[in-house]
Specification:
408 residues; alpha+beta; Butyryl-Coa Dehydrogenase, subunit A, domain 1; 7 strands; oxidoreductase activity; monooxygenase
Length: 408
Protein backbone atom coordinates (compact mmCIF):
# COMPACT_ATOMS: atom_id res chain seq x y z
CA UNK A 1 0.00 0.00 0.00
CA UNK A 2 1.34 3.43 -0.94
CA UNK A 3 1.92 5.68 2.06
CA UNK A 4 0.11 9.01 2.16
CA UNK A 5 1.67 11.84 4.10
CA UNK A 6 -0.83 13.95 6.06
CA UNK A 7 1.12 17.19 6.14
CA UNK A 8 -1.20 19.91 4.89
CA UNK A 9 -2.29 21.73 8.08
CA UNK A 10 0.81 21.27 10.22
CA UNK A 11 3.21 23.59 8.45
CA UNK A 12 5.03 26.65 9.66
CA UNK A 13 2.72 29.61 9.14
CA UNK A 14 3.64 32.09 6.36
CA UNK A 15 6.17 34.59 7.62
CA UNK A 16 6.83 32.54 10.75
CA UNK A 17 10.43 31.49 11.22
CA UNK A 18 11.07 27.79 11.93
CA UNK A 19 12.10 26.77 15.41
CA UNK A 20 15.64 27.43 16.57
CA UNK A 21 17.92 24.41 16.36
CA UNK A 22 19.54 23.79 19.76
CA UNK A 23 23.07 22.46 19.31
CA UNK A 24 24.05 21.27 22.79
CA UNK A 25 22.58 20.10 26.07
CA UNK A 26 24.13 23.10 27.82
CA UNK A 27 22.29 25.38 25.40
CA UNK A 28 19.05 23.54 26.12
CA UNK A 29 19.43 24.06 29.86
CA UNK A 30 20.30 27.73 29.40
CA UNK A 31 17.27 28.26 27.15
CA UNK A 32 14.99 26.57 29.67
CA UNK A 33 16.37 28.70 32.52
CA UNK A 34 15.96 31.92 30.55
CA UNK A 35 12.38 31.16 29.55
CA UNK A 36 11.51 29.96 33.06
CA UNK A 37 12.37 33.37 34.49
CA UNK A 38 9.90 34.95 32.07
CA UNK A 39 7.22 32.38 32.83
CA UNK A 40 7.55 32.76 36.61
CA UNK A 41 6.50 36.41 36.45
CA UNK A 42 2.98 35.53 35.30
CA UNK A 43 2.51 32.17 37.00
CA UNK A 44 0.28 33.34 39.86
CA UNK A 45 -1.97 35.43 37.61
CA UNK A 46 -2.35 32.61 35.06
CA UNK A 47 -3.24 30.20 37.86
CA UNK A 48 -5.81 32.51 39.43
CA UNK A 49 -7.41 33.40 36.08
CA UNK A 50 -7.03 29.91 34.55
CA UNK A 51 -5.42 31.67 31.58
CA UNK A 52 -3.88 29.16 29.20
CA UNK A 53 -0.18 29.79 28.45
CA UNK A 54 -0.42 29.91 24.67
CA UNK A 55 2.31 32.52 24.28
CA UNK A 56 4.62 30.69 26.68
CA UNK A 57 4.25 27.34 24.90
CA UNK A 58 4.81 29.06 21.56
CA UNK A 59 8.03 30.51 23.00
CA UNK A 60 9.19 27.02 24.03
CA UNK A 61 8.56 25.79 20.50
CA UNK A 62 10.40 28.71 18.88
CA UNK A 63 13.34 28.16 21.22
CA UNK A 64 13.64 24.56 19.99
CA UNK A 65 13.11 22.93 23.38
CA UNK A 66 10.42 20.59 22.09
CA UNK A 67 12.97 19.08 19.71
CA UNK A 68 15.92 18.36 22.00
CA UNK A 69 15.33 14.60 22.15
CA UNK A 70 14.93 14.06 18.40
CA UNK A 71 17.48 11.34 17.42
CA UNK A 72 20.74 12.48 15.86
CA UNK A 73 20.15 10.47 12.69
CA UNK A 74 17.18 12.74 11.98
CA UNK A 75 19.03 15.95 12.76
CA UNK A 76 18.27 16.23 16.45
CA UNK A 77 20.27 16.59 19.62
CA UNK A 78 19.25 13.25 21.19
CA UNK A 79 19.38 14.85 24.63
CA UNK A 80 20.02 12.57 27.57
CA UNK A 81 17.31 11.65 30.07
CA UNK A 82 19.27 13.69 32.60
CA UNK A 83 18.97 16.83 30.48
CA UNK A 84 15.30 16.24 29.67
CA UNK A 85 14.52 15.81 33.37
CA UNK A 86 16.43 18.97 34.22
CA UNK A 87 14.55 20.98 31.59
CA UNK A 88 11.26 19.82 33.08
CA UNK A 89 12.42 20.59 36.61
CA UNK A 90 13.47 24.11 35.62
CA UNK A 91 10.22 24.85 33.81
CA UNK A 92 8.05 23.29 36.53
CA UNK A 93 9.76 25.27 39.26
CA UNK A 94 8.61 28.43 37.48
CA UNK A 95 5.17 27.15 36.47
CA UNK A 96 4.33 23.44 36.79
CA UNK A 97 1.40 23.71 34.38
CA UNK A 98 3.81 24.82 31.67
CA UNK A 99 6.15 22.08 32.82
CA UNK A 100 3.49 19.40 32.45
CA UNK A 101 2.22 20.42 29.01
CA UNK A 102 5.20 18.98 27.04
CA UNK A 103 5.27 15.73 29.05
CA UNK A 104 3.39 13.60 26.53
CA UNK A 105 5.35 15.16 23.68
CA UNK A 106 8.63 13.83 25.02
CA UNK A 107 7.20 10.46 25.97
CA UNK A 108 5.66 9.84 22.55
CA UNK A 109 8.53 11.13 20.40
CA UNK A 110 10.32 7.73 20.39
CA UNK A 111 7.23 6.17 18.78
CA UNK A 112 8.19 7.77 15.47
CA UNK A 113 11.20 5.45 15.39
CA UNK A 114 8.90 2.41 15.37
CA UNK A 115 7.47 3.22 11.94
CA UNK A 116 9.02 3.35 8.49
CA UNK A 117 12.02 5.49 7.61
CA UNK A 118 9.73 7.84 5.70
CA UNK A 119 7.44 8.24 8.70
CA UNK A 120 10.31 8.95 11.05
CA UNK A 121 11.90 11.41 8.66
CA UNK A 122 8.68 13.33 8.22
CA UNK A 123 7.49 13.51 11.81
CA UNK A 124 10.89 14.20 13.35
CA UNK A 125 11.31 16.85 10.70
CA UNK A 126 8.05 18.46 11.74
CA UNK A 127 9.15 18.48 15.39
CA UNK A 128 12.45 20.10 14.45
CA UNK A 129 10.44 22.74 12.57
CA UNK A 130 8.43 23.51 15.70
CA UNK A 131 5.51 21.06 15.84
CA UNK A 132 4.46 19.55 19.15
CA UNK A 133 2.59 16.43 20.25
CA UNK A 134 -0.40 16.52 22.58
CA UNK A 135 -2.37 13.66 24.04
CA UNK A 136 -5.88 12.23 23.87
CA UNK A 137 -5.67 8.57 24.86
CA UNK A 138 -7.44 8.62 28.25
CA UNK A 139 -11.20 8.57 28.70
CA UNK A 140 -13.37 9.84 31.54
CA UNK A 141 -15.11 6.53 32.27
CA UNK A 142 -15.07 3.89 34.99
CA UNK A 143 -13.31 1.39 32.73
CA UNK A 144 -9.91 0.07 33.70
CA UNK A 145 -7.14 2.37 32.50
CA UNK A 146 -6.14 1.34 28.97
CA UNK A 147 -9.67 0.26 28.04
CA UNK A 148 -11.25 2.55 25.43
CA UNK A 149 -14.77 3.17 24.23
CA UNK A 150 -13.85 5.06 21.07
CA UNK A 151 -15.06 3.69 17.73
CA UNK A 152 -12.07 2.88 15.53
CA UNK A 153 -12.66 1.56 12.03
CA UNK A 154 -10.28 0.56 9.22
CA UNK A 155 -11.06 2.27 5.91
CA UNK A 156 -9.33 2.71 2.58
CA UNK A 157 -5.98 4.42 3.16
CA UNK A 158 -6.32 4.73 6.90
CA UNK A 159 -8.73 4.72 9.82
CA UNK A 160 -11.65 6.70 11.17
CA UNK A 161 -12.16 7.39 14.86
CA UNK A 162 -15.05 8.76 16.88
CA UNK A 163 -15.03 9.21 20.62
CA UNK A 164 -14.57 11.53 23.56
CA UNK A 165 -11.23 11.73 25.37
CA UNK A 166 -10.25 13.41 28.61
CA UNK A 167 -7.06 14.44 30.47
CA UNK A 168 -5.90 15.76 27.09
CA UNK A 169 -2.90 17.62 28.48
CA UNK A 170 -1.17 19.61 25.77
CA UNK A 171 -3.78 19.01 23.05
CA UNK A 172 -4.86 22.66 23.00
CA UNK A 173 -1.30 23.69 22.07
CA UNK A 174 -0.40 20.75 19.84
CA UNK A 175 -0.05 20.08 16.14
CA UNK A 176 -0.46 16.32 16.53
CA UNK A 177 -2.82 14.61 18.96
CA UNK A 178 -2.12 10.90 19.53
CA UNK A 179 -4.41 8.24 20.91
CA UNK A 180 -3.90 4.52 21.45
CA UNK A 181 -5.98 1.92 19.64
CA UNK A 182 -5.82 -1.69 18.51
CA UNK A 183 -5.54 -3.16 15.04
CA UNK A 184 -7.30 -6.27 13.75
CA UNK A 185 -4.72 -8.44 15.56
CA UNK A 186 -5.44 -6.64 18.88
CA UNK A 187 -1.99 -5.04 18.86
CA UNK A 188 -1.55 -1.55 20.28
CA UNK A 189 -0.90 1.23 17.81
CA UNK A 190 -0.55 4.95 18.28
CA UNK A 191 -2.61 7.11 15.94
CA UNK A 192 -1.40 10.67 15.39
CA UNK A 193 -4.33 12.91 14.54
CA UNK A 194 -3.63 16.21 12.85
CA UNK A 195 -4.89 18.78 15.36
CA UNK A 196 -6.50 20.76 12.54
CA UNK A 197 -8.20 17.80 10.93
CA UNK A 198 -11.92 17.95 10.26
CA UNK A 199 -13.92 16.53 13.15
CA UNK A 200 -11.45 17.43 15.94
CA UNK A 201 -12.83 19.57 18.77
CA UNK A 202 -10.78 20.57 21.81
CA UNK A 203 -12.73 21.79 24.83
CA UNK A 204 -11.04 23.70 27.64
CA UNK A 205 -13.12 22.16 30.43
CA UNK A 206 -10.39 21.12 32.86
CA UNK A 207 -11.52 22.36 36.28
CA UNK A 208 -9.09 20.58 38.58
CA UNK A 209 -8.12 22.52 41.69
CA UNK A 210 -4.47 22.37 40.64
CA UNK A 211 -2.43 22.37 37.43
CA UNK A 212 -5.17 24.68 36.27
CA UNK A 213 -3.65 25.80 32.98
CA UNK A 214 -2.56 22.47 31.51
CA UNK A 215 -5.75 22.37 29.39
CA UNK A 216 -6.18 18.76 30.48
CA UNK A 217 -9.80 18.65 29.34
CA UNK A 218 -11.86 17.07 26.59
CA UNK A 219 -10.96 16.18 23.03
CA UNK A 220 -13.73 15.01 20.74
CA UNK A 221 -13.11 13.00 17.58
CA UNK A 222 -16.10 12.99 15.24
CA UNK A 223 -15.44 10.56 12.39
CA UNK A 224 -11.87 11.86 12.08
CA UNK A 225 -9.76 10.32 9.32
CA UNK A 226 -6.27 9.18 10.28
CA UNK A 227 -4.13 8.12 7.29
CA UNK A 228 -2.04 4.96 7.57
CA UNK A 229 1.05 7.15 7.40
CA UNK A 230 0.12 8.57 10.83
CA UNK A 231 -0.19 5.17 12.54
CA UNK A 232 2.70 3.59 14.46
CA UNK A 233 3.15 0.14 16.09
CA UNK A 234 3.13 1.20 19.73
CA UNK A 235 3.48 -2.40 20.87
CA UNK A 236 7.13 -2.16 19.85
CA UNK A 237 7.71 0.19 22.81
CA UNK A 238 8.04 -2.91 24.98
CA UNK A 239 6.94 -3.23 28.58
CA UNK A 240 6.88 -0.60 31.29
CA UNK A 241 10.52 -1.25 32.30
CA UNK A 242 11.99 -0.32 28.92
CA UNK A 243 13.77 3.04 28.74
CA UNK A 244 11.29 4.29 26.14
CA UNK A 245 8.52 3.92 28.72
CA UNK A 246 10.44 5.02 31.82
CA UNK A 247 10.84 8.60 30.66
CA UNK A 248 7.21 9.33 31.57
CA UNK A 249 7.77 8.56 35.25
CA UNK A 250 11.05 10.49 35.23
CA UNK A 251 9.37 13.58 33.80
CA UNK A 252 6.53 13.40 36.30
CA UNK A 253 9.15 13.20 39.06
CA UNK A 254 10.87 16.29 37.71
CA UNK A 255 7.56 18.18 37.68
CA UNK A 256 6.94 17.28 41.32
CA UNK A 257 10.46 18.28 42.27
CA UNK A 258 10.03 21.64 40.56
CA UNK A 259 6.87 22.24 42.61
CA UNK A 260 8.69 21.28 45.80
CA UNK A 261 11.67 23.53 45.10
CA UNK A 262 9.58 26.60 44.30
CA UNK A 263 7.44 26.02 47.39
CA UNK A 264 10.61 25.71 49.48
CA UNK A 265 11.99 28.95 48.07
CA UNK A 266 8.71 30.73 48.79
CA UNK A 267 8.61 29.26 52.29
CA UNK A 268 12.10 30.44 53.14
CA UNK A 269 11.48 33.89 51.69
CA UNK A 270 8.20 34.30 53.57
CA UNK A 271 9.73 33.20 56.88
CA UNK A 272 12.63 35.62 56.50
CA UNK A 273 10.74 38.61 55.12
CA UNK A 274 7.06 38.43 56.12
CA UNK A 275 6.61 36.53 59.38
CA UNK A 276 6.51 38.12 62.81
CA UNK A 277 7.82 36.16 65.83
CA UNK A 278 5.38 34.15 67.92
CA UNK A 279 4.69 35.17 71.53
CA UNK A 280 6.90 32.46 73.07
CA UNK A 281 9.74 32.86 70.61
CA UNK A 282 12.78 34.04 72.60
CA UNK A 283 14.22 35.67 69.47
CA UNK A 284 13.14 38.77 67.61
CA UNK A 285 12.91 36.98 64.27
CA UNK A 286 10.60 34.16 63.21
CA UNK A 287 13.48 32.66 61.25
CA UNK A 288 15.44 32.11 64.48
CA UNK A 289 12.75 30.15 66.31
CA UNK A 290 14.25 26.69 67.01
CA UNK A 291 11.10 24.80 65.97
CA UNK A 292 10.93 26.68 62.67
CA UNK A 293 14.59 25.98 61.99
CA UNK A 294 14.15 22.28 62.70
CA UNK A 295 11.02 21.99 60.55
CA UNK A 296 12.63 23.89 57.69
CA UNK A 297 15.57 21.52 57.94
CA UNK A 298 13.22 18.56 57.60
CA UNK A 299 11.38 19.81 54.52
CA UNK A 300 14.54 21.04 52.81
CA UNK A 301 16.12 17.66 53.49
CA UNK A 302 13.27 15.92 51.69
CA UNK A 303 13.76 18.18 48.67
CA UNK A 304 17.49 17.50 48.47
CA UNK A 305 16.96 13.75 48.77
CA UNK A 306 14.36 13.89 45.99
CA UNK A 307 16.80 15.83 43.81
CA UNK A 308 19.50 13.21 44.29
CA UNK A 309 17.15 10.34 43.55
CA UNK A 310 15.91 12.07 40.41
CA UNK A 311 19.47 12.57 39.16
CA UNK A 312 20.31 8.94 39.93
CA UNK A 313 17.22 7.67 38.11
CA UNK A 314 18.01 9.76 35.03
CA UNK A 315 21.55 8.36 35.00
CA UNK A 316 20.16 4.81 35.25
CA UNK A 317 17.84 5.42 32.30
CA UNK A 318 20.68 6.79 30.20
CA UNK A 319 22.81 3.77 31.15
CA UNK A 320 19.99 1.38 30.23
CA UNK A 321 19.46 3.12 26.90
CA UNK A 322 23.12 2.78 26.02
CA UNK A 323 23.31 -0.86 27.12
CA UNK A 324 19.95 -2.16 25.92
CA UNK A 325 19.83 -5.04 28.41
CA UNK A 326 16.71 -6.08 30.30
CA UNK A 327 18.66 -6.17 33.56
CA UNK A 328 19.67 -2.51 33.37
CA UNK A 329 16.18 -1.56 32.22
CA UNK A 330 14.81 -3.16 35.38
CA UNK A 331 17.32 -1.31 37.55
CA UNK A 332 16.35 1.93 35.83
CA UNK A 333 12.70 1.21 36.49
CA UNK A 334 13.27 0.60 40.18
CA UNK A 335 15.38 3.75 40.48
CA UNK A 336 12.72 5.77 38.70
CA UNK A 337 10.05 4.48 41.09
CA UNK A 338 12.21 5.58 44.02
CA UNK A 339 12.54 9.04 42.49
CA UNK A 340 8.85 9.34 41.69
CA UNK A 341 7.86 8.48 45.27
CA UNK A 342 10.41 10.82 46.82
CA UNK A 343 9.60 13.76 44.54
CA UNK A 344 5.85 13.34 45.03
CA UNK A 345 6.13 13.10 48.80
CA UNK A 346 8.49 16.05 48.97
CA UNK A 347 6.18 18.29 46.94
CA UNK A 348 3.28 17.41 49.22
CA UNK A 349 5.29 17.83 52.41
CA UNK A 350 6.76 21.21 51.56
CA UNK A 351 3.57 22.69 50.12
CA UNK A 352 1.62 21.61 53.21
CA UNK A 353 4.20 22.69 55.80
CA UNK A 354 4.52 26.03 54.03
CA UNK A 355 1.34 27.16 55.82
CA UNK A 356 2.00 25.43 59.13
CA UNK A 357 5.36 27.20 59.42
CA UNK A 358 4.14 30.66 58.38
CA UNK A 359 0.61 31.19 59.69
CA UNK A 360 -2.83 32.30 58.56
CA UNK A 361 -1.67 35.41 56.70
CA UNK A 362 0.24 33.28 54.21
CA UNK A 363 -3.09 31.90 52.95
CA UNK A 364 -4.13 35.28 51.56
CA UNK A 365 -4.89 35.14 47.86
CA UNK A 366 -2.46 37.93 47.00
CA UNK A 367 0.51 35.69 47.84
CA UNK A 368 -0.66 32.83 45.63
CA UNK A 369 1.07 30.29 47.86
CA UNK A 370 -1.90 27.94 47.81
CA UNK A 371 -1.08 27.06 44.21
CA UNK A 372 1.87 24.96 45.39
CA UNK A 373 -0.30 22.61 47.46
CA UNK A 374 -3.05 22.49 44.84
CA UNK A 375 -0.55 21.72 42.09
CA UNK A 376 1.30 19.11 44.14
CA UNK A 377 -1.87 17.40 45.34
CA UNK A 378 -3.29 17.30 41.81
CA UNK A 379 -0.21 16.27 39.87
CA UNK A 380 0.90 13.55 42.29
CA UNK A 381 -2.41 11.78 41.62
CA UNK A 382 -1.36 11.03 38.03
CA UNK A 383 -0.55 7.38 38.79
CA UNK A 384 -0.91 5.79 42.24
CA UNK A 385 2.12 5.94 44.50
CA UNK A 386 0.69 3.00 46.49
CA UNK A 387 1.28 0.67 43.53
CA UNK A 388 4.86 1.84 43.09
CA UNK A 389 5.45 1.02 46.74
CA UNK A 390 3.82 -2.37 46.24
CA UNK A 391 6.03 -3.24 43.27
CA UNK A 392 9.17 -2.10 45.09
CA UNK A 393 8.21 -4.11 48.17
CA UNK A 394 7.34 -7.21 46.16
CA UNK A 395 10.62 -7.05 44.26
CA UNK A 396 12.94 -6.44 47.21
CA UNK A 397 11.06 -8.80 49.54
CA UNK A 398 9.96 -11.60 47.21
CA UNK A 399 12.06 -11.10 44.10
CA UNK A 400 8.96 -10.53 41.96
CA UNK A 401 9.54 -8.15 39.05
CA UNK A 402 6.77 -5.68 38.14
CA UNK A 403 4.47 -6.93 35.38
CA UNK A 404 4.91 -5.85 31.77
CA UNK A 405 2.14 -3.24 31.96
CA UNK A 406 2.82 -1.99 35.47
CA UNK A 407 3.56 1.70 35.82
CA UNK A 408 6.57 1.70 38.09
Amino acid sequence: MQETIDDSPARTAPGQAPAHRIESEAEALAAAASLAERFRAGAIERDQRRALPHEEIAALKRAGLFAISVPRQYGGLAASAATVAEVFRILSKADPSIGQIPQNHFCFLPVFSFGSAAQAEFFYGRVLAGDSIGNAHSENTRNRAGTYEHALRKVEGGWTVSGKKYYSTGAAFADWIPFIGHDEQKRQHMFFVNARAEGVTIINDWRGMGQRTTASGTTVFDNVFVPDFNVFPYYLAGDSKRPTRLLAALVHSAIDLGIAQEALDDLGRYIRESNRPWIDNPYDEHAKEPFIIQAFGEVSHSVRIAQRLLSAAAAEIDRARADGSAALALEAGLATADARIACANSSLQVSDQLFALTGARSTLEKYGLDRHWRNARTHTLHDPIRWKLYHLGNYYLNGVEPGPQSLI
